[in-house]
Design goal:
The complex is a heteropentamer of chains A (about 500), B (about 120), C (about 500), D (about 110) and E (about 350). Chain B has about 120 residues and is mainly α. Chain B is built from 4 helices and no strands. Chain B is elongated and about 55 Å long. Helices cover about 70% and strands about 0% of the residues of chain C. In chain C, strands 1-2 form a two-stranded antiparallel sheet. Chain C is globular and about 65 Å long. Chain D has helices at about 5-35, 40-65, 70-100. Chain D has about 110 residues and is mainly α. Classes of the chains: A mainly alpha (about 500), B mainly alpha (about 120), C mainly alpha (about 500), D mainly alpha (about 110), E mainly alpha (about 350). Chains in contact: A-B, A-C, B-C, B-E, C-E, D-E. At the C-E interface, helix 1, helix 4, helix 5, helix 6 and helix 8 of C face helix 5, helix 6, helix 8 and helix 12 of E.
Chain lengths: ~500, ~120, ~500, ~110, ~350
């Protein structure tokens, strides 16, 4: 067995593996393409390898922790535990493919040094946030994520981009402030900020000051819900679609939205604990909010003609599956929620990759212009179709697995509306995804494409197509091989088995 | 009423007269005069207020302090007069002008920025 | 000779000797003087820190007499932290200034309008440094007064080094405010001496000043010092003065000079008058806090309305000074303040948060002013539109500005975040939700005006204005300060421990 | 009444007379300063009368002084004032003349 | 007989208040300046009445004398600025304050009433303060034996609280450096340069007074150790002699560029600091004079103080910014360039020739 001490730095190394290239790139000249790409790829690969190492260690029953004390009683701590690894693995692997995609996507555009620098910092913040061992560290990375993402959203420098960036900052920074106040209040009240599986708070203490803890809970939830895009705090997300496609992909699948959802999971699991949250009656509030968001997002997605906006509202809807699953006091729903965190990421990133290819190669941005794109871009649209079907929840795609577990949980819960909501949502999913697939494959070409003709070898630049295909296959694999120990489901089941949840 | 008391009250009066002059007059020279008088009044308090030695001598420590204070006031006056004269050169008038547009130096800044952002 | 005597002498005499050296003139002596001052200040700060951390507060009986007859230099946790902050910021600004003002041996200096600024910045700044260190170490009221006068004269001279009409007027106003502030302080000294017959801070604290005369004295001194600190609503002199001064001067004034008078307020309120304020004096603490809250809101709102880069930063100083005073109402252990004999004290987190904010603001604000100075140096104009797109041409300065802003806004990871965390924690632990709200609101407003600058700097618009190349030294000194402000967010334990030596109630 | 006390009495009397005389000249000088028509006449009045007045006062006080050192100091004071006052009057008058202040004509 | 001191004190007090009121109320700067000098002289009478002879001497020499001279000097510069201009041009530069708002007598009364109440309150709290025993004077008395000098004030200034006095010199030097740093287009002394060397009467006075003043300054410096006197009064006296020499044309106006001036100006600072450091390494404490050497060291410091104070005071008097007609600084208001083709930063700092990127 590997001695733990030697490996205690592993979480820190995972964070640094993208932080160092990020800072380094910042000081490169604009024309140092080779070095920049090299740094990016090296960082991405290093992070992936480190995460795999850590994954193996955790699977063997180890856990990793690195901490320094910042304030008396408050530490900056990075922890590699099961739940953290679920998210870290997702972000590390998706970052790898997104990097390849982004290099191809942005070729020839200005300010790439700045872009890739903040791109790396963004992932740094996400991995740090995933491995945060306590709320203090979580807050640090949560805020850092905001700053790292802002330059990416305004990257194009257009008035819409700047407006979107401003809206994003207004939402997220206010939320960040609320989260900080909540965290401080929690520390002042409970004296601890550690994440503990099953809940860090003493139920008796909570019973002693119920109102106070209720306020704290909602402060924290409010801070997290904005990034998680829970209705009515989702306003920034569709607007942020002006960002370049790799950024949207990152925002929706890997970083920001996921960070919010993951935060809700941490809040319910590791701070309050599900049982306590249920007792306080707050879990049901979360569940109801999530249920409403699921329906609302789907309905709004129905009548968006802009492809990326439709995908954005889909994210709003899908992300709430996670919150809903976690908020229900049942193992099966937990498993469904957590697995969906991963599955949704993989599928949604595929969709955004494909949307990026469409707009970049053909100039197609709207669903109504998509007639016949499947024949021009068969690989891309194949990937898109797999992901879309997965989103709908057709077996054997990844989405089916998570919805299955959620459904079981819903049936078992004493909330009668959960199953109808899931059913309705699936129908709505189908209603807004299937027409796209149909239009792409079966309709005739109905608009002028500005075909850039890039990538004579494949249907488009290989760096754009390959990532999309890879993640689509990944999504398919997650569904087909769900029984495997190494699938997201397998990992989640392992966590349950170990009592981490 | 002893000598000390008379000068104590005088000190309070002179210091507040000086302070008032500083506040009410716009001309820089009178402001500087006001500060000087304020200092003189405080010096009087400093000597007249503390208890005397049994022999009736004044406490030597405040005397030393006032001696220091006189030199400090002199230095401050010299520098202040120098700057005041330069104000007269630069602005044409030896007054403490209200800065144009203070406290908001560009009232249009906010609106201009807002317009640009939209 | 004890180490305390050696290092505390070095802290005061080092910059003084440096100033004398620079009066010889010429590049060699200018740099030699700066080196002597910086080295002795840094060494003194570190040496005293070591002593304070290992052996507790140190004292140096000047002339061998000891209080109350003589003057004592006192080094406790608070003093050495301020010394170190001054040494750090001061050294970086000194390095920056050697590049900013150009070569003093250049014969053109004799005729150039700014030539005098280049020649006299160093001596004036070193005298300023002497008085800063003097204030932090002084244990005697009248000695504080003399230090304050050196501080006021040299700080005003820093402003008038800039030759414009604006700067002259701003410097005049600053000098007058400073002198009246000193006079009010002296009035307080006179009253306290009359009442207690001692000038030693410790002696006064031991006497436990209560009653009408000490209250009047505290009031006069606080008004005078608040005017020097530019506490709202006595802040009107600050934005013109801090924005008109040459950039290194702006950095020093905003980062350090206002902290010196704040430091004396802290010493007086907490250490000399101390727990006697709890209960009856709590209204006064609340009043100071209310002024601080007013400063946070008003300063931030006005910062948002500026179109000049340096004025914006100067208004931000007005706002951030407000935070320092929000510390006061958070200090009493219990809201409502029922003092109980023996167990009454100050809340450690409020105290730590306030001082930590002073320190991290010093680094962050110095970084921002230096970065802004670099930008205006490059485009010879300091209106916001003229720095359009500067982020692409001076990325390092832009980053320094951004990191400084990050700390100012209290966003993690930064010293400002830790400070704000501590203050929030003090507010929430005692259910002062209103103060928590103001602290949080101030952070958001700070973000707003930092973003205003960012927005201009990040614009993609091509700038047609002439652009002068910038010495590298100006870029990395600002960056070093900004990184220090950020680094303060990673490890606060040692600094807070150090602050505990002597602590909020050392005597 | 002893001889000594008579002598003291006489000396006191002389002092009173001298100081009173000095005060009279001071008063006269001040009256001139206030009443005379132009700067030159005023200077004349002040310089002449005050110098004489001070001399008389010094003489009166010198009689009372306890030691010759003190008397010497008093006389020295008078001489210095004499020198500086005349020089200052000269400078003032010349400066006024250069600035174009004309003496008033006979009415 | 016992009423006489009362009357004297009352007259002096009323005179002080009246002079202060009048000089702050008048609009004529010359009147205010002269009244300020009168105030200073009256104040030195008050110091005598309060038993503080050292202060009386210092007040007359420094407070009324040098400060008054500084005001008069500045007044003259300001007045000269207004000469030879049309009324409209010079309206702002007149030495009459035209910015005093006319207020009704009632409003003025109310204003003075409020300030009077504040002053009265201040006096009242001090008067009603219960008496305490003298503390520090007893300690001073007890320590005087070891102080090296027998004048308690000098002992406080140069031994017990010598650190304050060191910093006091720093204040003077700071003011001097500050005045130097104010840019001036040209340097001129208040006198017309054509008159230099053409001052027979002033010259005669100088020949008479300057040696005497020098001698007295030396005496005052030395006697400070035992009796009334000391470096500050002596320095002021020597400075007066210096100003006379400059005025009579025996000495060119000293300039900040002169290494000689700078050296003498900081002499006291150097000597004082070195004495402090030597004591630090000798006895272990800064400014703790080695036993037995107190008197010598204090005299050394006092001597240096006298020289430096005299030089700095002359410097402050002579070096008040002149107001030239054509001030190159005025042209810097245009931030794009100066007459030498250099680029000036907005804060006016000197910047080397423009190098385009």
């Amino acid at each position: 067995m590997i001695p733990i001490l030697d490996w205690a730095l592993l979480p820190l190394l995972v964070v640094l593996s993208s932080f160092v290239p990020g800072i380094w790139i910042m000081f490169l000249r604009e024309d140092q393409h080779g070095l920049r790409t090299g740094l990016n790829m090296a960082g991405a690969i290093a992070k992936f390898v480190l995460v795999i190492l850590m994954l193996q260690g955790v699977a063997m029953g180890l856990s990793y922790e690195w901490r320094i004390e910042v304030l008396p009683g408050i530490a900056f701590s990075l922890v590699g535990d099961g739940l953290a690894l679920l998210f870290v693995t997702l972000s590390a692997s998706l970052w790898l493919v997104t990097t390849v995609y982004a290099v191809g996507y942005l070729e020839g555009s200005p300010h790439r040094t700045r872009f890739f620098s903040f791109f790396s910092l963004c992932v740094t913040a996400t991995t740090g946030l995933a491995m945060a061992g306590d709320l203090f560290t979580f807050v640090i990375f949560y805020e850092a994520l905001t700053w790292a993402t802002y330059p990416l959203i305004v990257h194009r420098g257009s008035p819409e981009a700047i407006r979107a960036g401003r809206l994003y900052l207004i939402y997220t920074l206010t939320a960040g402030t609320v989260l900080v106040v909540g965290a401080v209040a929690l520390f002042a009240e409970a004296g601890t900020l550690d994440f503990v599986p099953g809940g860090a708070l003493d139920p008796e203490a909570v019973a002693g000051a119920p109102v106070r803890y209720l306020v704290i809970f909602f402060l924290l939830l409010g801070g997290l819900a904005v990034k998680a895009a829970l209705v009515p705090l989702h306003g920034w997300l569709p607007t942020a679609m002006v960002a370049p496609a790799p950024v949207s992909a990152l925002l929706h699948a890997v970083a920001v939205v996921k960070a919010g959802a993951f935060g809700v999971v941490r809040l319910l699991h590791s701070i309050f604990g599900i049982e306590l949250a249920t007792e306080m009656g707050v879990a049901i509030v979360v569940a109801m909010g999530a249920g409403f968001t699921i329906i609302y997002g789907s309905v709004r997605a129905l009548n968006q003609d802009d492809l990326k906006r439709r995908l954005a509202f889909s994210t709003v809807s899908q992300l709430s599956y996670v919150a809903l699953g976690v908020a229900l006091l049942l193992p099966a729903s937990h498993i469904g929620g957590l697995v969906h965190l991963v599955h949704q990421g993989i599928m949604k990133i595929t969709l955004f990759f494909c949307a990026g290819v469409l707009s970049e190669v053909l100039g197609v941005k709207r669903v109504s212009d998509m007639g016949g794109v499947g024949r021009r871009l068969p690989l891309t649209m194949g990937a898109f179709s797999i992901a879309a079907l997965g989103m709908v929840g057709l077996p054997p795609m990844a989405g089916f697995i998570s919805k299955w577990y959620l459904g079981i949980g819903g049936l078992g819960s004493d909330l009668p509306w959960v199953v109808p909501v899931l059913l309705a949502s699936s129908l709505l999913n189908a209603a807004y995804f299937l027409p796209i697939v149909r239009t792409a494959w079966f309709d005739d070409r109905n608009s002028e494409w500005k075909d850039s003709g890039r990538g004579a070898f494949l249907e488009a630049d290989w760096r754009l197509v390959l990532p999309a295909v890879t993640t689509a296959l990944l999504a398919l694999g997650c569904g087909l091989l769900a029984g495997s120990e190494w699938s997201p489901l397998g990992w989640t089941l392992l966590l349950v088995e170990r009592g981490h949840l | 009423m002893s000598t000390d008391l008379i000068y104590l009250v005088t000190g309070a009066g002179v210091s507040m007269l000086g302070f008032r002059g500083f506040v009410t007059r716009a001309h820089l020279f009178w402001k500087i005069l006001g500060i000087n008088l304020m200092g003189s009044g405080i010096f009087l308090i400093l000597i007249a207020a503390p208890p005397r030695l049994p022999g009736g001598e004044a406490d030597p420590v405040p005397q030393a302090m006032v001696l220091t204070g006189i030199v400090v006031a002199l230095s401050a006056t010299a520098l202040a007069l120098g700057v005041a004269l330069r104000v007269a050169v630069r602005t044409g008038r030896p007054y403490l002008e209200e800065e144009a547009g203070d406290p908001v130096d560009h009232p249009t800044a906010a609106s201009e920025i807002r317009r640009e952002m939209e | 000779m004890t180490d305390v005597a050696l290092w505390s002498t070095a802290a005061v005499a080092g910059p003084l000797l440096g100033a004398i050296l620079t009066l010889v003139r010429g590049r060699l002596f200018t740099q030699l003087g700066l080196a002597v001052a910086a080295a002795s200040s840094l060494l003194a700060g570190l040496g005293l820190t070591r002593i304070v951390a290992l052996e507790g507060p140190g004292r140096h009986l000047l002339g061998g007499w000891g209080a109350p007859l003589g003057i004592e230099l006192l080094a406790d946790g608070l003093a050495v932290i301020m010394l170190l902050t001054t040494a750090g910021v001061g050294s970086a600004v000194s390095l920056y200034a050697t590049a900013y003002f150009g070569d003093v041996d250049d014969p053109g200096m004799d005729v150039a309008p700014g030539g005098r600024a280049a020649r006299f910045f160093t001596p004036v700044w070193l005298l300023l440094w002497t008085s800063l260190n003097g204030v932090f170490l002084s244990g005697d009221l009248f000695n504080l007064y003399v230090n304050l006068e050196i501080l006021g004269l040299s700080a005003a001279a820093v402003v008038t080094l800039a030759v414009t009409a604006k700067a002259t007027l701003a410097g005049m106003r600053y000098l007058l405010v400073s002198l009246v502030g000193s006079m009010l302080f002296l009035l307080g000294v006179a009253l306290l001496y009359t009442a207690y017959g001692t000038l030693s801070l410790e002696g006064l604290a031991a006497a436990g000043p209560t009653g009408v005369v000490p209250a009047v004295a505290l009031g006069a001194m606080t008004v005078g010092l608040a005017a020097k600190t530019a506490l709202f609503p006595l802040h009107a002199w600050l934005p013109p003065a801090h924005s008109a001064a040459p950039a290194p001067g702006s950095a020093l004034l905003s980062a350090l000079v206002v902290k010196a008078s704040f430091y004396i307020i802290v010493r007086l309120w907490l250490h000399v008058y101390g727990v006697g304020l709890v209960g009856a004096g709590e209204g006064a603490l609340l009043f100071l806090g209310a002024l601080g809250a007013g400063a946070v809101v008003w300063g931030s709102l006005l910062a948002l309305r500026q179109l000049s880069l340096k004025r914006l930063i100067a208004y931000s100083t007005v706002a951030q000074i407000g935070y320092l005073f929000i510390m006061f109402p958070l200090l009493p252990e219990v809201a409502g303040g029922v003092a109980q004999e023996g167990e009454m004290g100050w809340r450690v987190d409020a105290w730590g948060g306030g001082i930590y904010h002073a320190v991290s603001h010093a680094f962050a604000k110095a970084a921002m002013f230096l970065a802004a100075g670099t930008m205006t140096y490059a485009v010879a104009d300091d209106s916001l539109p003229s720095i359009s797109g500067i982020a692409h041409r001076l990325p390092m300065s832009f980053l320094a500005f951004g990191l400084g802003g990050l700390s100012l806004a209290g966003l993690p990871p930064s010293g400002g975040f830790v400070a704000k965390w501590l203050m929030l924690s003090a507010a929430l632990a005692t259910d002062r939700w209103l103060w928590a709200g103001i602290i949080a609101l101030g952070g958001l407003l700070t973000i707003a005006y930092v973003l205003l600058v960012m927005r201009y700097a990040l614009e993609v618009r091509e700038t047609p204005t002439a652009f002068r190349s910038v010495p590298r030294r100006m870029e990395w000194t600002a960056m070093a300060l900004a990184l220090t402000a950020v680094a303060l967010g990673f490890r606060a334990v040692e600094i807070l421990d150090l602050l505990d030596v002597g602590g909020a109630a050392p005597w | 009444m002893t001889a000594a006390s008579t002598g003291a009495m006489l000396l006191n009397l002389v002092t009173v007379l001298l100081v009173s005389g000095g005060a009279f000249f001071f008063a006269a000088g001040t009256a001139g300063l206030l009443r005379f028509p132009d700067v030159y006449c005023r200077l004349h009045a002040v310089a002449k009368a005050d110098n004489l007045g001070l001399g008389l006062v010094v003489a009166g006080v010198a009689i009372q002084a306890g030691s010759w050192t003190a008397r010497l100091q008093l006389v020295l004071t008078w001489l210095l004032v004499l020198a500086s006052a005349s020089v200052v009057c000269h400078l003032l008058a010349r400066s006024s003349l250069r600035q174009g202040v004309r003496p008033v004509e006979e009415p | 007989m016992s009423a006489l001191p009362w009357i004297l004190d009352g007259v002096v007090a009323l005179l002080l208040i009246g002079l202060a009121y009048r000089l702050l109320d008048t609009r004529d700067l010359f009147e205010a300046t002269v009244l300020y000098i009168a105030f200073g002289l009256t104040l030195s009478l008050a110091w005598v009445r309060l038993g503080a002879a050292d202060l009386a001497l210092a007040e007359a020499a420094l407070g009324a004398g040098v400060t008054g001279a500084l005001f008069l000097n500045a007044y003259q510069r300001l007045a000269r600025r207004g000469e030879g201009r049309t009324d409209e041009e010079s309206s702002g530069l007149t030495v009459v304050d035209d910015r005093v708002d006319e207020v009704s007598p009632a409003a003025a009364l109310a204003s003075y009433g409020v300030w009077g109440l504040i002053a009265g309150g201040l006096a009242w709290v001090l008067v009603t303060l219960p008496a305490r025993d003298p503390i520090l004077p007893v300690l001073v008395d007890a320590a005087l034996e070891d102080a090296g000098v027998s004048n308690p004030i000098t002992a406080v200034l140069l031994n017990f609280r010598a650190y304050d006095t060191l910093l006091e010199i720093v204040v003077l030097v700071a003011a001097m450096v500050g005045v130097w740093s104010l840019d001036r287009g040209s340097r001129e002394f208040a006198r017309n340069p054509a008159d230099l060397g053409d001052e027979p009467i002033l010259g005669a006075l100088s020949r008479l007074v300057v040696p005497l003043a020098g001698l007295t300054a030396v005496y005052l410096t030395w006697t400070g150790a035992y009796a009334t006197g000391g470096a500050f009064q002596a320095g002021a006296l020597a400075a007066g002699a210096g100003v006379l020499l400059v005025a009579a044309g025996f000495m060119r106006p000293v300039t900040s560029a002169a290494p000689f001036t700078r050296a003498l100006g900081v002499l006291a600072l150097v000597v004082f600091t070195v004495v402090g450091l030597v004591s630090l390494f000798w006895t272990g404490l800064f400014l703790d004079y080695p036993p037995g050497a107190e008197y010598g060291l204090i005299l050394l410091v006092e001597g240096a103080l006298t020289v430096s104070i005299a030089v700095i005071l002359v410097e402050l008097f002579v070096d008040v910014p002149a107001i030239p007609e054509d001030d190159p600084g005025l042209r810097v208001l245009d931030p794009t360039g100066d007459p030498l083709g250099r680029v000036i930063s907005p804060d006016g700092a000197f910047i080397r020739g423009a190098e385009e990127e």
